[in-house]
Amino acid sequence: MPARGLPGITRNVVALGFVSLLTDVSSEMIIPVLPLFVTTTLKASVSSLGIIEGVAESTASLLRIGSGWLSDRIGRRKPFLMFGYGLSTAAKATMAIAASWSAVLGLRFSDRVGKGLRNPPRDALIADSVEPKYLGRAFGFHRALDTLGAAIGPLVAFAMLRAFPQEYRRIFLVSAIPAVLSLVVLGIFVRAPRHEPRVKPGALHREARAMGPAFARFLVTAGVFSLANSSTAFLLLLAADPKHGAGFSGAGVTLVYLLYNLVYAVLSWPLGELSDRIGRRPILLAAYLLFAALYGMLAWQAGAPFVIAGFVLLGVHSALIEGTQRSMIGDLVEPDRRGTAYGFYYTVVGAALLPASIIAGALWDRVGPRAMLATDAALALVAALLFVLLLPSRHEWRDRRHGQPA
After folding, report:
1. How far apart are CA 383 and CA 366, in angstroms?
2. What does the H/E/C string look like for 282-333?
3. CA distances (Å), origin 17, targets 113, 141, 146
4. Does the pLDDT value for residue 119 go beyond 90?
């Protein structure tokens, strides 16, 4: 049922928002301390961290096509969500006993497998649950709750580090509590009745062609930008680095990350609604250009004030891009192919993170963080140029499968 007086905010959108909130409390307790755990507790290199982040994301990404396509083929979304969230919950809790960076790699991989299984069907279910003209509002609302959880997680980690300095394993263990609660909410409150699958579901290569040239051009630009968008773990290391960055303590790093997520959470919903009114493409172009600017700034100067400003700008960038990209896919693809479309999107983005994170880690170790930041800024500018050429704003309404906005 729609929420009172607010079209587009349906029961499923609200329930899935709280599922994501609880999941992100769990995940974001881990993310700001994981780089420090790997490089200090386990004594691994920054290159190892790049391998962990890149391999875990990209090798799990193939499942994203499969889960989205299967959810379209069989007409079911919720089973993929239950298994995916469950697997991630188990992986994060087990990280408390990891004894090597290779063990962390395996557990991060399992966590990302769970995310790969659940995300395309989840986004398809959100898009299925609202009218097309409210997609930006629905995804913005979902992202706001998701990111509120991402703000609470670092705050909990900060409090735990103040009470138990450098006891990162304790944080991993406690992170299982909100993750389990998210499964309870998902099981009880999300209603995803079986849809009639297409009579003749096609093979993946035929499905990709059927989604149209505008969707293909969108995937190209999203993939190029993802080459620039290396793991946030490197910015967290920059915040902690006393030589090249701000030199914040572990607790200080969690507060900077909290600031990023607060900005992200506050802006996600209004920017999602703005994309319903003015279109997705101006919002996405602004996101690409802002990313290039903030990484260029940090390549030039990475003292404490600049790092804090960089995380604030990163929060604005994330609010601009995340929900808007998912809304744009809902615009460009017919409802019975949405699961597959989100699978293709997450796979392209995830596959690009392998070279992005491995190259970023190698540049950091061999040349320095400024070279890494400048490279990412340059790649983001290339993606912005491609976006202007391949997806001009004047063609936005023409390319939508649902016609002009109401």
Report:
1. 26
2. HHHHHHHHHHHHHHHHHHHCCCHHHHHHHHHHHHHHHHHHHHHHHHHHHHHC
3. 20, 7, 6
4. no
Residue listed under structure tokens 């400003």: 309
The one-letter code for the residue type at 368 is G
**Which tens digit of pLDDT belongs to each residue from 177-208?**
999 999 999 999 998 766 665 545 555 566 66
User: For the chain, what is the mean pLDDT?
Assistant: 84
**3-class SS of residue 377:** helix
* Radius of gyration for the alpha carbons in the chain, expressed in angstroms and rounded: 20
Annotate 43-96 with DSSP letters as a single string. Answer: ---HHHHHHHHHHHHHHHTHHHHHHHHHHHHHT--HHHHHHHHHHHHHHHHHGG
Return the C-alpha torsion angle 359, 362, 368, 370, nearest 10.
Answer: 10
Residue keyed to tokens 């630009």: 221
Mean per-residue pLDDT, 21-41: 86
Q: Given this model, what pLDDT does residue 193 score? A: 64
Write the pLDDT tens digit of every residue in 126-181: 988 888 888 889 999 998 898 889 889 888 988 898 888 888 889 999 999 999 99
Question: pTM of the entire structure?
Answer: 0.77
The total of other beta-carbon atoms located within 10 Å of residue 128's CB is: 18
**Cα separation of 246 and 240, whole Å?**
6
d(CA 137, CA 118): 21
> Is 354 within 8 Å of 89 (Cβ atoms)?
no
Neighbours of 97 (CB within 10 A): 11
Residue 301 to residue 236: CA distance in whole angstroms: 15
Give CA–CA dist 23/28, Å, rounded: 9
Cα–Cα distance list, 75 to 14, 138, 199 (Å) = 22, 21, 11
Given a contact cutoff of 8 angstroms between Cβ atoms, the answer to whether 93 and 172 are in contact is yes
Q: Mean per-residue pLDDT for 92-105?
A: 86
Q: What is the pLDDT of residue 158?
A: 84
Of 373, 341, 360, which Cα lies nearest the Cα of 69?
A: 341
User: Looking at residue 203, what is its pLDDT?
Assistant: 57
Cβ pair 96, 169 in contact under 8 A: yes
